[in-house]
Amino acid sequence: MSSPAPRNHKLLSDRIRKEWHLVSVLLVLLTLLFSSLRDDFALGRLNNLIYDFTMAAALPQSVPKDIVIVAIDDHSIANLGFWPWRRINHAELLSRLSQARAVGIDLVFQEPNPAYPDDDLAFAQAIQQHGRVVLPLVYDSQRDIVHTAIPMLSRAAKASGYINIEPDPDGVVRRVALQQLTPSDRVLPHFTIAMLLTGGDTDQALHALNSSQYGTPHIPYLGRNGHFQTVPYFNVLNGDIPPSFFKDKYVLVGAWGSGLGDTFPTPLSKAGMSSMSGVEILANTLQAVRSDQWIRTPPFWAIALASCLPVLLACQVLIYLSPRATLLSLMGIVFGILLVNWIAMHGFNLWIPPLASLITVLLAYPLWHWRSQEAALNQVTEELNKLKLEYPDVKAALSERLSGLSTRNLPHRLTQLHKSINLLRQAQTKREETLRFISHDMRAPQNSILALASLQRQDDSKLAPDQFLHKMEGYAEQTLDLVDNFISLARAEAMEMVLSPVSLSDLLADCLDDAWASASKRAISLNLIDSELVWVNGNAPMLRRAFTNLIQNAIKYGPDANQIDIHVELDKNTVQVRFTDHGWGIPPENQATIFEPYHRAHENTTGAPSGSGLGLAFVKTVINKHGGDITLDSSREQGCTFIVTLATAELSDEH
């Protein structure tokens, strides 16, 4: 009988383990799928949001000392007049930047100035005289056209590079291509590459170009707007800043003013600083090229592997931890993914899109909760079905539907299983009590009969025939009494009570008649005190037996010449029957269990009458099956009062 439990336990563990394997495989597949779709519109936008958050959470970084921005700002426009300015001003500016390592002018001079034709020549001479000036190109990819400065300026410049800024689909500038290959096989280097070549940093420029062949890197922005050294155009032109300030520095000249339109959103954009000027984006790109500190994205297999690692950890958490600990651990894994991503970006210049692992880890808890509950629900349902087949009492108890719970959810099934366990526990207790009753109480008189028969065979201890028969008769009656009480209790517990109107006064009178002979032998008076005719809905034979038991107990556990009073008190829809005696009483320590089977109050008292401990259990069972209640009011040596409460019956006209 002990083998089914381990087998059932193994069956449930196998189901849970199988579901765990299925959930783990599904989570890994989802991770791989999300990793492959990381750049699609929806997932791409979410990954970009995480990228921007991680980028903005960078620690403060030092300002490069050898990169300076000469800003065409509002202050300069206010002093030099409305934009565009005369090109002679740019020529004069270059004379102030003669000691710069390289000068990149982020302004496109596509057309000559007919109003001041000499300015173009002066500007071209200044560019040529400086010798380290880079001019921009604008590449129109749709028409495959490269827009350059006018030929006079282009020939004078040391180099040129394209300055196209290509935002991501959400309009944010995160990446830059360091070279463009046109359909005509023309290679266009980036503006910052041209500046490095002009400034003599050839190795760095070539290394950056070679690295760019493996993907478009992310710009590692050093800070928000205004992070780089910036000086107003007018102050440089006016001589307020000495030329030595620009010695061996890369100088970028570009628009900064609020109305010039050369601004773009970046990952560092926020309210109040919604965009960054194009010239400062070039400064960030120039620093990244020089330091080779790009934020790069690993190949797909590396991203997929990195995304699967936290998911596999989450799978281990699902199988080994409790639901509460699992939820907290998964939240910790989510935080850990973001933390590791931050460390990878700012410590190792790697961007691993984390959305695939984040989504999968967040899906792990509800998915596992669903599948594990389904496995547990199926197991519990099967066990309940087995119990219903094996134990009819369990089937009857489980047929009741629980209020507020669906019959197909796990709480309902667990509640039913709990009820079944309680019923089986009660049945086990009852079986043990029955075995004790059979092995002890039923065997005692039989052993006495056998012992008496053995003594009777010995001449020196033989009893007189009358005395021998009298003792045999007593032991036989004791056995029959035990059997009768046992059967009566079992019948009362199992039977369905058929109730009909019963006259309580007549029923009590019959009970007194049954007990009159026993009471008369000991001069005990029986008194029935009732005020009026009372009817109750009851099973007359069972109620008669229960009341007779109470009266016989009062006779048995009382002195000779005792007085037993039975009071009937009517109260609205109920009636109380009080059985009062002046006998031994029941000690307080025994009153809690006096109505339980096989419990006797005076079992260890010298001279106490014999009994089975089933009488009061029978009485309580009968009263409860009538919808009534029985209580006890007693103290040691002061007698007992058993109070039976029953509902009164409404009689029809025929009664």
Short description:
It is built from 20 helices and 18 strands.
- Regarding quaternary structure, what we see is single chain
| Uncertain runs | 1-6
What is the overall pLDDT average? 81
Overall 3D shape? rod-shaped
- Terminal-residue CA separation: 56 Å
- Give the domain tally: 3
Radius of gyration: 51 Å
Strand content: 5-15%
Largest sheet: 7 strands, mixed
- Count of β-strands: 18
Please, how many helices? 20
| Percent of residues in helices | 40-55%
Main location: membrane
Keywords: Coiled coil, Kinase, Membrane, Phosphoprotein, Transferase, Transmembrane, Transmembrane helix, Two-component regulatory system
Organism: Alcaligenes pakistanensis
EC number: 2.7.13.3
Task: Explain the overall architecture.
The protein is α/β, with parallel strands linked by helices and 655 residues long. The protein folds into 3 domains: 125 residues, no CATH class; 231 residues, no CATH class; 152 residues, Heat Shock Protein 90 (2-Layer Sandwich). Helix content is 52%, strand content 14%. It contains 20 helices and 18 strands. The strands form 5 sheets. Strands 1, 2, 3, 4, 5, 8 and 9 form a 7-stranded mixed β-sheet that branches. Strands 13-15-16-18-17 form a 5-stranded mixed β-sheet, with helices on one face. The protein has a two-stranded antiparallel sheet with strand order 6-7. A hairpin with a 2-residue loop joins strand 15 and strand 16. Helix 11 packs parallel to helix 13. It is rod-shaped. The N terminus is likely disordered. One of its GO terms (cellular component) is plasma membrane. It is an enzyme of class 2 (transferase). It is a multi-pass membrane protein.
